[in-house]
Amino acid sequence: MNANQALLDLSEIASEAHSRIQQDFADINPVIGVMQGMRKMGIPADVMTIDCLLSKKRILIVLHDQHPGLIQYQYTFSDQDPGDQYQAVKSEGFSADTLYDWIRDYFSN
After folding, report:
1. How many other C-beta atoms can be found within 10 angstroms of the C-beta atom of residue 104?
2. What is the pLDDT of residues 50-100, one digit of tens each?
3. What is the pLDDT of residues 22-50, one digit of tens each?
4. Domains: count for the chain
5. Is the dihedral of CA 90, 12, 22, 48 positive or negative?
6. In terms of residue numbers, what domain contains 39?
7. What is the pTM (predicted TM-score) of this model?
8. How far apart, in Å, are the Cα atoms of 59 and each of 33, 62, 64?
């Protein structure tokens, strides 16, 4: 993956959270995808999706070059277009624990 450091860091965090979720929840098997296609369209951002195939719930995460140090995200569904409203958290201190909680809380409801 030809990626910036923020995306590499997020990928490591997601990998750890994913492993823990699989150990703790047999009914949640998240699928994680990383897309850099927005850059090809001239939008300086990377996207990570975390999907629950059973419920079609999706956590959409955007790392935008114009907002360094922020992780923008929204809870949505894989079969729907995302909305315009994103929440944001600082990337400093963002951990596998945080992402684990997001996945557990959203996908298990």
Report:
1. 16
2. 999 999 999 999 999 999 999 999 999 999 999 999 999 999 999 999 999
3. 999 988 889 999 998 888 899 999 999 99
4. 1
5. positive
6. 5-107
7. 0.92
8. 11, 10, 16
